[in-house]
Batch of 2 targets.
Target 1
Amino acid sequence: MKRIFLPLLLIPFGVFSQAFDQNNEPTIGALSSLHLCDSNANVLANTNGNNATWDFSQIAGIFGVTKDVQMLDASLDPNFASFAGATKLYDIGGNFQTFFSSDANGRVSQGFVFNEVSLGAVVASWSTDQENLMTYPFNFGNNITDIFSGTVTTTATGTIPATGSSMAAVDGTGTLLLPGGNTYSNVSRYHLKDSAVATVFGTNVAFVREVFEYYDFTVSNLPIFITMSVDVNSPLIVNSSTIILSKDQPTTFVGINENSTDSFVLYPNPSNGLIQFSKDLNGASYRVLDAAGRTIQSGTANSSLDVTKLQSGVYFLSVNNQVIEFHIQ
């Protein structure tokens, strides 16, 4: 954990947001159910600075689904043996679990777990050099870069060495606009981007995560809005997924149109890899989403769809303003 901490030398007039510190760190048992949103929405990555306005008031929802964001006891997790020293597990919607520990000086991560379409469960353990997430107090204008290392384990690859680098910052303060006309005017945005590289089947694979978390400590010590993308890049594997979660429920929903004249059915359901449509979709654009609302496959559809690369589970097909649930055996 070779970190560089850049202190805030000048606090601009008008910044009243509360710093991240041990007092407002979520305790074990903290839980918030956030609404799943359209993963194709603009995440406003470049909207930052003091007195920023992040407008997500018109963001659409996905099927009205909620996802739990929670802080758990790391020692009770089945993967705990891979994360020696971790005391807390930060779980974002069951999609991404970060193991970390903290003290009065800040937070350090022992690694993370997430599910990847091609590789299955990815267990990244920073057992050699941990990753620094923030140094307390962490306020607007502070940022940290870090280098970390350990191993990555998947069913497909076994356990292989990995190294990584990260950047964490409070890159903005200001006003967050959420659906339903809800305004939060004392918000701080935590931005984390980290990447890890491991050699898989003789070629480098990069795991890249970018998270924007919006906090209003007068409302909750957990974020009230989250955008997170996870990319896996290599000559052999290229996959990308995004999850967006909101405290306030969207008022419109993606892919729901009960009066659509383009209605169709798919079969067999469950399927073992090839789906047939009851009508030719004539090259219509489609998306396949997993149970968390992440787009994991897309393209143009005609009379059938090849989903042989998908693992067993529940998925959703969105095409022609219609959303259909299907199962892979």
Note: Residues 189 and 214 are 5 Å apart (CA to CA).
Target 2
Amino acid sequence: MRLTTPSITDGNTSAGEAGPTAPDPVTVLVVEDDDGFRAGLCDLLSAAGLAVVGDAADGNAALELMTTLAPDVVLMDLQMPGLGGIETTRRLSESSPATAVVILTVSAAEADVLEAMLLGARGYLVKGSTPDTLVAGIRAAARGESLLSAGVASALLAKLRADGAPAEAEASTLSFLSARELEILGLVATGSHNDEIAKQLHISPFTVRNHVSNLLHKLHLENRTQAAAYAIRHGLS
């Protein structure tokens, strides 16, 4: 287990000078049991401008670090000795809901990926992805976006449906959502990304993002995965 303090400097600003304020970097806790791979991930993410505030080799160490850290994103390996990624994700979702958990997996087809999503993970990244893909995925999760492919979305929805028939949409529950928000909520449940929703509805991705943000706020939901589950349970998908 390691806690680090990232240092950010601006080479064009001399001591004592007030330079332009840079946006705070995305903070990341890396949880991975392979020491070499974990060190490589930390170096890669740091080089890309992310702030790696700590790393851990198992779930217990990660939970201990979370008592002092408040990272934007936890990059979580699934298969670890001791406390594994599934149970650690569940505990983090309960204790630190503002932190986005992103699963790091060998294959999105693993059953554990779906279970982690149902327990609150915001999405997954596949080991072996390009550095650009990893960094972009972490930044997207920090912005509140869900990293959910159409295939995993379909499996997620099938699982939710199998757990019980969706309830009929109730006007008393959904009346505070606009017609457009209801439409977008239904499309989110299919696993569609903002760009895909924008094309289908002939609006801009920026407008879609605003609608998604608004409906999450109105429904008191943390992410798109929870929104998809909500949509199904209320008969919108």
Note: The chain has two domains: 2-11+22-147, 166-233.
